[in-house]
Amino acid sequence: MHADEHDLMTNMTNTTTNAAANMDASSLDTTNMGASGKDSTSMGTSGKDSTSMGIERVLDLFRETQAMLEGHFVLSSGLHSDRYFQCALVLERPDKAAILAEEMARQLRSAGMPRFDIVIGPALGAVTWAYEVARALGARAQFTERKDDSMQLRRGFQVKPSDAVFVVEDVFTTGGSAREVIDVLKTYGVTPRAVGCIVNRSGKNPFEQDGLRLFALANVKAEAWAPDDCPLCKARVPLVKPGSRAKPA
Ligand SMILES: [Zn+2]
User: Which residues lie at CB < 5 A from ion ligand 1?
Assistant: First the structure.
């Protein structure tokens, strides 16, 4: 166990006893999934590159900022999970956001995709992330937003079919929000070149059937259960509902 993990667990007393046990390497993977979903070659030699961050460094940034909580959580879907990612707590630190964005740009370059015109993500969660990735790529940063229950491109943002577009999200659970962004782009005649996220919890490439490559800085498959089947409930681990309201220090 890393010292910081220990600190985190100490901070998270009364949450779970098996958080460390759940940090098994089998659920953690830094390889990118190609359109095939099985393609690990996109990291290829770059995976051994000394400049590569690796998943542990990525997760360390999350632990340092308490953006990855290990314990017993109710997700927005209503399912219970042993881990919760609050990317806003990493992204509130521009220095750390820049490190993650540079890593994303490095992975794209390694995959032969060095040039993008636009990085776009769904508001609100992906606004700052898209902005940092755009900075790292020398691209423009845009976001879509919900209005009247539909995702839209507003504020005078322009996108045209000849633009090389990279769609980003902070965390993929199902990739649903990124899917909505892709659908908005479609109405402008735009097909993105690739999709990227900081943490992919889906356990796959949700855009495989679209032929889109997925770039994820960390693949951490969500262990999630219906409340009736939740082993953490059975073990009487106190349930935490991560809210949008910050707790006083
Ligand atoms: Zn539970």
Answer: 80, 230, 232-233
Q: How far is ligand 1, taken at its centre, from the CA of residue 87, in Å? A: 22
Q: Is residue 36 part of a domain?
A: yes
Distance 153 CA to ligand 1 centre (A): 38
**Number of domains making up the chain:** 1
Question: How far is 180 from 158, CA to CA, in rounded Å?
Answer: 17
Contacts by 56-59, CB closer than 8 A, 24 or more apart = 58/30, 58/100, 58/103, 58/198, 58/217, 58/218, 59/28, 59/218, 59/220
Structural domain boundaries, residue 154? 23-59+92-224
CB count in 10 Å sphere of residue 216: 27
Query: Domain of 216: which CATH number?
Result: 3.40.50.2020
Q: How far is the centre of ligand 1, averaged over its atoms, from the C-alpha of 177 (Å)?
A: 25
Question: Tens digit of pLDDT per residue, the chain (249 long)?
Answer: 444 433 333 333 333 333 333 443 444 544 455 444 333 333 333 344 445 788 889 999 999 999 998 899 998 778 899 998 999 999 999 999 999 999 999 999 999 998 999 999 999 999 999 999 999 999 999 999 999 989 999 999 999 999 999 999 999 888 889 999 999 999 999 999 999 999 999 899 999 999 999 999 999 888 889 999 999 999 999 999 876 555 544
Q: For strands 140-147 and 150-153, give the pairing.
A: antiparallel
Distance CA 193, CA 114 (A): 11
